[in-house]
């Protein structure tokens, strides 16, 4: 269990670090584009602004749905584990520590599911906008 927990935390940390680099890059590119466009944005600029709004709505909706589903799954697993441990365990001394490990891994899992759509969208935007800048 500890290796899985450590792996989940590292994966979540990596996603957060990538997001921390990609998000300001995307924001800077879009802000520069809006600044250059001024009061009369081109059709391409308008499309980019529309995309900016709609993809945020989609990514955050997907994140909330994924987190809700993972929370439901995790709650069932923890409840099943806890009831099994209370009813059928001979040694209850290690039960709090095991439960704490499970709760930590579950929290990381929920956060990982929630950040995945935002991470995926932001990294795809950074890659797309980087290509666009070099043309």
Written description of the protein model:
By secondary structure, this protein is mainly alpha-helical. It has one domain. The chain contains three helices and no strands. The chain has helices at about 1-35, 45-90, 95-135. Helix 1 runs parallel beside helix 3. About 10% of the residues are buried.
Q: Short summary of the structure?
A:
With 135 residues, the chain is an all-alpha fold. 90% of the residues lie in helices and 0% in strands.
Secondary-structure topology with pairs:
Elements: H1 2-37, H2 43-88, H3 95-134
Shape type: elongated
- Briefly note the structural class of the backbone: mainly alpha
Please indicate the percent range of residues in DSSP E strands (runs of 2 or more).
Answer: under 5%
Q: Spell out the helices and strands N to C.
A: HHH
Count of folded domains: 1
Rounded to the nearest angstrom, the distance between the terminal CA atoms is 48 Å
Specify the biggest β-sheet: none
Helix content: over 70%
Number of strands: 0
Average pLDDT figure: 85
Give the quaternary arrangement of the chains. Answer: single chain
Low-confidence stretches: none
Radius of gyration from the CA trace?
21 Å
Give the helix tally.
Answer: 3
List keywords for this structure.
mainly alpha, 0% strand, 135 residues
């Amino acid at each position: 269990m500890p290796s899985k927990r450590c792996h989940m935390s590292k994966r979540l940390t990596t996603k957060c670090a990538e997001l921390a680099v990609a998000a300001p890059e995307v924001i800077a590119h879009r802000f520069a584009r809006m600044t250059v466009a001024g009061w009369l944005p081109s059709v391409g600029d308008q499309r980019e602004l529309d995309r900016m709004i709609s993809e945020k709505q989609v990514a955050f909706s997907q994140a909330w749905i994924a987190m809700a589903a993972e929370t439901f799954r995790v709650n069932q697993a923890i409840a099943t584990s806890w009831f099994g441990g209370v009813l059928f365990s001979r040694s209850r001394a290690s039960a709090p520590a095991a439960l704490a490990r499970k709760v930590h891994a579950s929290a990381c899992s929920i956060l990982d599911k929630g950040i995945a759509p935002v991470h995926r969208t932001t990294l795809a935007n950074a890659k797309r906008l980087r290509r666009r800048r070099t043309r």
